[in-house]
């Protein structure tokens, strides 16, 4: 089986529904929306009933474009593991070909990092995925949101909207994270880290 015929499962972490749409915790949804736009297809309900998905190929024209399933789980962040496991089982995707796009407190806003494996660092979505998959050995595209200002509670911070100043540069960050996902599935981890982890 050639490299390009295997499927990647790209999961945008977030909370469903309009109430949460603009929150820092929902950056995974925003990046997956951009990837869906690039793939030229809308999200549709998956037959498991637990996520919305886009299936297609991702990559620049003329390059080997791997098969990719973009997923937006319909569960809340702390229960995302169940839908991810169901999709991984349905599409026969190994954990090493799963990419989780998520917000990261320990990285400054407007910065990101790509890595394979690691802990969950208190992130409920990653914790749920690790628990359901039985491993943390999946890829992560960690989009920085920075730490809350002053003494603001972390939970309140991640479930709040971006500031006006942040919203002006957010589209560039979303675009860059989408580029990183595309690079990861077409060029691999090492080249992607060299390009995007600087």
UniProtKB/TrEMBL annotation:
Question: What reaction gets catalysed by this protein?
Answer: an N-acyl-L-alpha-aminoacyl-tRNA + H2O = an N-acyl-L-amino acid + a tRNA + H(+)
Residues with site note (Stabilizes the basic form of H active site to accept a proton): 103
The subcellular location is:
Cytoplasm
Swiss-Prot/TrEMBL site (Discriminates between blocked and unblocked aminoacyl-tRNA) positions = 15
The active site lies at 25 (proton acceptor)
Mostly located where?
Answer: cytoplasm
In terms of InterPro entries, this protein maps to: Pept_tRNA_hydro, Pept_tRNA_hydro_CS, Pept_tRNA_hydro_sf
User: Which Enzyme Commission number(s) are listed?
Assistant: 3.1.1.29
Q: Which Pfam families match?
A: Pept_tRNA_hydro
Q: Which UniProt keywords apply?
A: Cytoplasm, Hydrolase, RNA-binding, tRNA-binding
Q: What class of enzyme is it?
A: hydrolase
Record-annotated residues binding tRNA?
A: 20, 76, 78, 124
Q: Which GO terms describe its molecular function?
A: peptidyl-tRNA hydrolase activity
NCBIfam families referenced in this protein's UniProt entry, alphabetically: pth (TIGR00447)
Q: What does this protein do?
A: Hydrolyzes ribosome-free peptidyl-tRNAs (with 1 or more amino acids incorporated), which drop off the ribosome during protein synthesis, or as a result of ribosome stalling.
Assembly with partners or alone: Monomer.
The family annotation for this protein states: Belongs to the PTH family.
Protein name stated in the entry: Peptidyl-tRNA hydrolase
Species name: Nocardioides kribbensis
Give me the gene this protein comes from.
Answer: pth
């Amino acid at each position: 089986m050639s490299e390009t015929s295997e499927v990647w499962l790209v999961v945008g972490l977030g909370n469903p529904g309009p109430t949460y749409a603009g929150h820092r915790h929902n950056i995974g949804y925003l990046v997956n929306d951009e990837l869906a736009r690039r793939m030229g297809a809308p999200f549709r309900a998956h037959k498991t009933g637990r996520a919305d998905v886009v299936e297609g190929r991702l990559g620049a024209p003329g390059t080997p474009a791997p098969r990719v399933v973009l997923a937006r789980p319909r569960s809340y962040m702390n229960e995302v593991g169940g839908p991810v496991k169901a999709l991984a089982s349905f599409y026969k995707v190994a954990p090493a070909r799963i990419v989780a796009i998520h917000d990261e407190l320990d990285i400054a806003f407007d910065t990101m990092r790509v890595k394979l494996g690691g802990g969950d660092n208190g992130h409920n979505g990653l914790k749920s995925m690790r628990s359901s998959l039985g491993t943390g050995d999946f890829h992560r595209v960690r989009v920085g949101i920075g730490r809350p200002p002053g003494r603001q509670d972390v939970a309140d911070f991640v479930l709040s909207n971006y500031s006006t100043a942040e919203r002006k540069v957010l589209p560039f960050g979303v675009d860059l994270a989408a580029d990183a996902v595309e690079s990861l599935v077409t060029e691999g981890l090492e080249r992607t880290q060299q390009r995007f982890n600087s």
